[in-house]
Write the C-alpha cells for this entry.
Amino acid sequence: MKPTTLEFKPQERNIFFHVLTGCNLSCKHCYINPDQHGKEMVSRNTMETWLKLFYEPTKDTNVIFLGGEPTMHKDLAHGVKFARELGYATVTIDTNGYVFHDILERIEPHEAVISFSLDGPDAEVNDPIRGRGVFATCTAGIKKAVKKGFDVSLIYTVSSMNLAHLQRMPALLEELGVKRFFIQVIGIRGKSAATTERLQVTPDEWLTIIPQVAADAANRDIHVIYPKVFLDPNEPFVCAGQLAQNFFIFPNGRVYQCPLCEDFPLHTYDIKNNTLHRNSGLSEAQLFTLEIPEGCVMNKLLQPGNLEYLENGTVKHRISCCLLKQEMKL
C-alpha cells in the first residue's frame, strides 16, 4: 500500500483557534510559549466575534479548537454550537482526554469531531511524556466518546521518546474503535526548543518506520494521515502559506500562517479591536516567497536539525511544507 499526498486546496480555510493557553498537563513537548502566546482565555463574546471574523461562507471553512486544553474553557460547548450555526463545514476539538466541563454531554456527536492526543500504546510509554495517569484517563475518554457515537481521531506526536513504540498503536486504535489516526512529527518549538535532548527522529527512521505503521493501520480500516516531511527527488516544494488558507489564532490576538514560526513575533496578522490587521514589518509572509535548495525556508531557519547534506554539499532530503500531508486508507 502506497501513501497519497494530499494537495493543498485553495478553496478551503482551516482555522486553528487556541481559545486559551492554560492546561492541566505539562507535556514534555508542549509547543505553547506564554511569552509569545500570552496566558489569556478568550471570552465568550470574543469567541463568537472571532469565529465570525474568520468564517468564509463561499469556502469550506473548518475550525479546530485548541489550547492548552480547550475543554477547560467553560464556553467551549457554546463555541462548537455557534460555529456550526454559522456554517463551519467541520468542527474539531483537540483534547488531552480529560474532557472537562462535561463536554461530551453538552454537545451532540454530529456537532464535532473529538481528537485525542496520546503518545504511547501504554502508560509506561505515554505517561513519562504527558503525565502520570494520563494514559488511563485519555483511553477512558476515548471509549466514552466512541460509545456515545462521536467521530473520534487520535494524534500521536512522534519523537525519539516514543518512536520505537509507534508500531503498537494500530492494534490499540483498533481495540478502542478509533477510525482516524494522525501521526505528527515533533516540532522544535515551545518546550522542545528549550531542551538539550535530541527529540527529532532521523530521516531514515521516519522514512522507514512511519509508512510501515501507516500501512498496518490502514489495513485495519483506520484512515491514517501524517506529514510528508521529506520530498521525493523530483517533487516540487509547495508552501501552504502561498497556496492555502490556514490561520493559527492565539488568545493575545496573534495570527500565524505557519506553525513553525509560533515561537517568534513573525505572525502575519494581529486581531485589533476585533478586526484583522496585516503586519507591515518583517513577518513569515515575506519568508514564504524565498526559494532554497533545502525546501522549506522556515525549517532551515528554525529547526535545521533534520537536514542532512551529502559530501558535495547538496541536501540529502529536501523538507516539505509542514502542512503537506499524506494519507493511507483502504
Q: What stands out?
A: The first strand starts at residue 4 and ends at 6. The mean pLDDT is 95.
